[in-house]
Amino acid sequence: MAIVTHKNFKVSIYFINTKKLTAEYDNILLDNQVIIVALNGKKGVYSYEGKCLLSVEHFNIIPTEKFLIVHLDDDKTQGVYSYTGIEILPPKYSHLRFFYNFIEVGLEEKKGIYSFKGNMIIPVGYNFIEYNFSNKVIKVRTNHKEGLFSFDGKLILPVIFDKIYIWDDDSLFQVVLNRKMGLFSFDGKLILPIIFDKLDSYKHSFISLHQNGKEGLFSIENRTLIIPCIYSKITFYQNIILGDRDLFDMSTYKQITSLTAEEEFITCNEFYIVIYNNNSSNIVILQKSTLEKKCSVTVDNFSTLFSKVLLKEDKFVVVNHEYFCQSIVFTFDYKGKKIKTPYPTYTDPQKTVVRSLRKFKKN
Q1: What's the pLDDT score for residue 7?
Q2: Counting runs of H as helices and runs of E as strands, what totals does the chain give?
Q3: Model-wide pTM > 0.85
Q4: pLDDT in tens, 294-303
Q5: Hey, is 304 helix, strand or coil?
Q6: Pairing between strand 10-15 and 20-21?
Q7: I need a labelling partner for 362 at 20 to 30 A (CA). Which of 48, 76, 189, 292 fits?
């Protein structure tokens, strides 16, 4: 408990519990936790119990929610003290920022991080600091090189990389070094060597690898290389991966078959694979699990660019010639027999065919 007294334009503090009166000051600020006094342009701090926490020799004292920011000689140097008068950081820093559970400090253009207890987490020496709260990592940069620290100050990746990208959903760090890319796990373990020209994530399940004009595939879940970089192009079709002319099962990553020069992959589902033979003009339906040929049908003027095959449980539909606003629809069972349907062959404008296909999908 304290009482402020006024005399000859000066103010003093009388502490009731100690029955002591302080010296006279020019001004007094009653903060929620401490009393800040000012005299001849200098400031000090008292507790409400009458204890002098900081002598009146500081250029400025700014109370915050948890700490006192202290300027020793001028506004260019700052330090941090607790509300009990304990020095946490000496007043030597050019700037301070309280962020999360950190005190970010600066000396000229270099930055570092300390804990609220004054323990060093990241030494002062970096031009750029970026926090990633979802993964509790801190990215730093200096001299155009980047590295990673954990929130407790453990070095995860050394400050040697040209760029670091954090893949939050995949729990991976992508690094760039000398225009080559690689991957690290969140604990700093090398997952993919830094030899690739480009890395692309596909549905957070696969990473498409690009190296010297060739593509490969990496499984994020298993952390394994499933397809080496030997293909000109890799394409995903539902549960099939197509590498040039090689077909892979997306669930097992095993190669199913290879297409001949005359064959083209059309579509697939859980049970069947559809292939078109350019020589025979046949649409071939294969049993996916055994590669047994279920049936083969011939459709005139089938185009792999403008035609499509729709698979259902007991039948499949060939939509032919969807260009020039016209289509012809054929329906077959899996023995290759053409069957009649409520939607016969169409030569109407394309919008009519679109309506028929929607009706087919509903059936």
Answers
A1: 75
A2: 1, 38
A3: no
A4: 999 998 778 8
A5: coil
A6: antiparallel
A7: 292
